[in-house]
Amino acid sequence: MIREKRNKEKLEAYYNKFMEEGIVDPNVHPWIAESWQRCRQLHLPHETFATNHKLNAAEIKLHLQKHALVLEYLEGLYQQIKQHLNMHNLSMMLIDKDGYVVKNFAMPFFRKSIEDIQGMRVLEEDVGTSSVSIALEHNTPFMMFGPEMWMRDCHGGDACSAPIFVNGKLRYVLTFFSMDKSNVPNELLVNHLITLKYAIEDHLTSLEKWTVNDILMNNLPAAIFLLDRDGVIKYCNERAQQRMEGKNRLQDVFLNYEHLPIAAALSGQQVLGQEMTWITAEHTYDDITSVWPINIGSEITGVILFSVSVEELKNMIAHATGYTNRNSLYSMVGKTEEFRQLQHRASRLARGNRNILLQGEPGTGKQRLAHGIHQASARAVSPFIMVKCRNVDDFEMREEIFGSSNGLKKTAGKLELANGGTLLLDEAEKLSLSIGDELADVLQTGKYNIRLIVACDSNLKRLTDKGLFSRKLYDMVVNTFIKVPALKDRITDIEIIANHILEEMDERYNTPMKKFSDDALEVLRSYDWPGNIKQLQGVIEKAFFHTDSGFLTAEDLSMPVNKAAEKSWKTDKNAFLGAWKSAGGNISRLSKMLDVSRVTLYRYLRKYDLDNK
Question: Residue 109 pLDDT more than 50?
Fold first, then answer.
């Protein structure tokens, strides 16, 4: 905050009046007045500093190490302006977010030596009212004149402080202190401070981004190079460094450098997913390599190489295979006749090669069933690719399925990626007629060796008859139809499914085995689960992560409320009873479910002539 120069004699009179009589003159800035009053209540000394909170020598050394990066940057800035600061009797100080002085630059601050002030805490409760405390309290730069400061030792100069934020969080406070003999206008002093504040904030933000970037780059399973037009490495991650044998030009290491696609990238071409062997005098690297040109305006300034070891890709595929195995047909559990028929039919169809239609309510497990069919088929070693049909424009959906080509840049669609394996169209009822017809035409040409699985939440025959779904695509799957039953039709399976979900979570997160209490299982069995298995899993996952005990009780379950009951329970006794049953007859749980007080629920128990037992 830029403030006009104040008359020091008047400010001194206001200060003395407050110190002697406790009266705040109306001309005192309100933020300063509030701070003075707090300091008075704390009985803070005001003649000279008290060093109640100060780091010792060992702690100061660690403190400097902790803030070395910002100090290195600020030291560089200071060297550029040191002469200016000395000429105008200015001192500069960096303070951390906890109020401890990191370093004092230029002239001794508060007329004390650097050794005395460094490591000292200078919050309001330590040194009273100061530009630092005001800047911290109000999160804004603030200019303060000598007699406005609580400590009489500081009345010989003016101070201006600015908080430094990085990604919205306070990191430091930067302060300028000018002696009486300083001839720097207030506006110039504040502008100097604000300029440094933004420079430090930008620097720390960039450092944070580069730190994240390094973590990502060094943990990606690839060698990554950034080259300029002359082939000199400007950046490479750790995996790339391991190949470079301490040199900084690829041509000095790789014997087949001329065959690498760098020249193509420098001419503006992208090279994506090319099989390539990198040869050195001692090693060969069999990779899948991609290269991109770096365009700054119309000029190509260099290239980025991204090269993944084939062996690394094999390991990743092995992990992916292990993951999809958890979605085998036998990872689906149940004992009802409806479920057993479903499992047997899916197993028989999986052994063939026909396209399949899966139809059932949302959340019944159609995705897992499709995974299971793929895993049980001869295509298990090939890709399983899913297209989530969405209510988007045809252009976006077409690019996702069929890929895109924009000059030299080509992107494979999911149809191409699924070649040799299985393509799942999930929520297929959202696929437009034109794209459905186009997909059917492409599949019928035999260009791709794909098994198609279509999953639909609605009655696909009815949609097709109404002209809302592609007849061509429907005809390709209609003869191998599997109806997936809703959970409400598998009531006796709920306990089995719930325990299976809990076992999978214990295994996935490597936690001690948790179990359901009897009352928890009773609550799960009593609910109608309109969202099916997906809704059941959501309730169990929430309880799993919010319960430290090895038992999940009814109290741990946050049961969803039936939407109809949620709106009508106040006027419909049956709707109230339905919600009451979903809560397992527990008044506290029903209170949370309906978002009303227990007192309100007792009133409705009386209204409907019900006993809360």
Answer: no
